[in-house]
Amino acid sequence: MAGPRTPTVPDVPVAPWKRHIVLQLRQRDRTQKALFLDLMPAYNRLLEKAELLAQFSEKLQPEPSDVTPTTHQGPWEEESGPDSGQVPSPANLRVKWQEEEEGLRLVCGEMAYQVVEKSAALGTLELELEERQGRLAALEASAAQLKEARAGLTEQVEAWQALNAAQRATYDKLREHAGLQEVALRRLEEEARDLLEKLVQRKARAAAERNLRNERRERAKQARVSQELKKAAKRTVSISENPDVLCDGVREGAETVALATPPESLESEACEKWKRPFRSASATSLTLSRCVDVVKGLLDFKKRRGHSIGGAPEQRYQSIPVCVAARLPTRAQDVLDAHLSEVNAVRFGPNSSLLATGGADRLIRLWNVVGGRLEANQTLEGAGGSITSVDFDPSGSQVLAATYNQAAQLWKVGEAQSKETLSGHTDKVTAAKFKLTRHQAVTGSRDRTVKEWDLGRAYCSRTINVLSYCNDVVCGDHVIISGHNDQKIRFWDSRGPRCTQVIPVQGRVTSLSLSHDQLHLLSCSRDDTLKVIDLRVSNIRQVFRADGFKCGSDWTKAVFSPDRSYALAGSWDGALYIWDVDTGKLESSLRGPHCAAVNAVAWCYSGSHVVSVDQGRKVVLWH
């Protein structure tokens, strides 16, 4: 039997579902033909055997005249032994044939039953095979799509790698160029410092020489005056109370003595001596002391980083006026949902009427405190991430914010867009504060660095590497204080390269607050305590605790009151706690509008208002 013909597939593209149906039809044709191909040969063999048996039976029927016994023994004669000489009768043969036929029928029935069972099993297997083939086709199509996508992604990766390699090469070149420029800059700075030192020394030498000449001149004048006084003392002089006749008395005395000097010269000399003012030793010493002060003023210059000499004195902001006695807040005057998400930072401006808040919605909002209410002033946009810290400069004209975008940003009050971006950290910036000198700031980050910035050029002037995350920083005159995750507070001299002091505290430091006189430091830590550190003796003076007080996060902020009489902090349950710094006792606790953990608090410089912000978007003004 000829095999199935393979249909020719046209070159025209066929839809996938049509191709699938054609494959199923071909498969069913093959399976049905295979069943009949197995069954027909068996049936043909059975027919051949039946015909052969019929022929044997016809041949074995004896004729009446035939008495010759047949010696042929068929295969069906099972019961006749080999030594049997008798030929079976046709009746016996017919019986045997019937039995054989019945056996063959039974065998054929069993075979037919087995064929049906095998056909059913084969049908089940064919259905399963078709299902698996369908799934295999779907998987093959999906694998083809994935291969295509993988090829596309591989091309993109190769393109990005090539671009990255080009950018890395460019970055290496720029870095090398920057290194050369930095070396050249350092060399020029060293030359400038050397020239400045030489200039200062030359000026000092010139001033010393000039002072020496002046001193010699004064001594000569003093000696001449003393000689003239001695000469005048030898003359007889009548002193009158009337100053108009003083010269006449001198003239008369001169005539009485009758010296060799002519009368007119004596008269004029005496009058000039008494009228001319002379310098005493005290006057001379005063002039010398003033010259020494001038020299000291020339030599009294600031030492820069690395103990180098030179440069003009740093420009400082004017001091912020601070109230004499702060007022304890007692009630909430205004409650606002200020941001779209939690509020992380709050700060009062120097004039106590402007307030800044920063939140996780990447916005800084400015508020005016008017009549016990918060009125929206301005929204500062352009931050690259969540705001973690906000600070006003002492003039109140600029706002500095730390963000999660590995940078700090600078705004000018009145302008909505960011003025400068201080980038250079490699992790979240947790704190950003202005220094007391103009155009300088300090930032702390979770990348274990503290950076000093020149805001005039948006340039990092110094990087301090620390062993732990920095959570907050504050700045004094010449000191930078940083609080860290390893339960330590570190002190850095802005004029020196190393850490000057380390004060350990219990718990991770979450915030620092420096008093206005720069003599006391307030720290808040995750052991649910506030500590007052006396910077004069570098010792912990007070430790504040309270039942129910608990830090809500690693960035919970606590502050001094403007007069340093009280310490204020917010708790995880939305309450505010106020301690008396002198006695160390809990002065009061305020509860009310906050339903979430308080992240930060601020006390205005006039001492009249307190503002708190929480994780539930609320800003509360207390009076």
Automatic annotation (TrEMBL):
Instruction: Kindly state which keywords UniProt assigns to this record, in alphabetical order.
Output: Coiled coil, Cytoplasm, Protein transport, Repeat, Transport, WD repeat
Family matches, as PROSITE patterns: WD_REPEATS_1, WD_REPEATS_2, WD_REPEATS_REGION
Gene Ontology biological-process annotations: autophagosome assembly; protein transport
Please tell me where this protein is predominantly located.
Answer: cytoplasm
Classification via InterPro entries: ATG16 (IPR045160), Autophagy-rel_prot_16_dom (IPR013923), WD40/YVTN_repeat-like_dom_sf (IPR015943), WD40_PAC1 (IPR020472), WD40_repeat_CS (IPR019775), WD40_repeat_dom_sf (IPR036322), WD40_rpt (IPR001680)
Where does this one sit in the cell?
Cytoplasm, Cytosol
What does this gene product do?
Answer: May play a role in regulating epithelial homeostasis in an ATG16L1-dependent manner.
Family annotation (PANTHER family): AUTOPHAGY PROTEIN 16-LIKE (PTHR19878), PROTEIN ATG16L2 (PTHR19878:SF7)
Recorded family membership: Belongs to the WD repeat ATG16 family.
This one is known as Protein Atg16l2
Gene name in the database record? ATG16L2
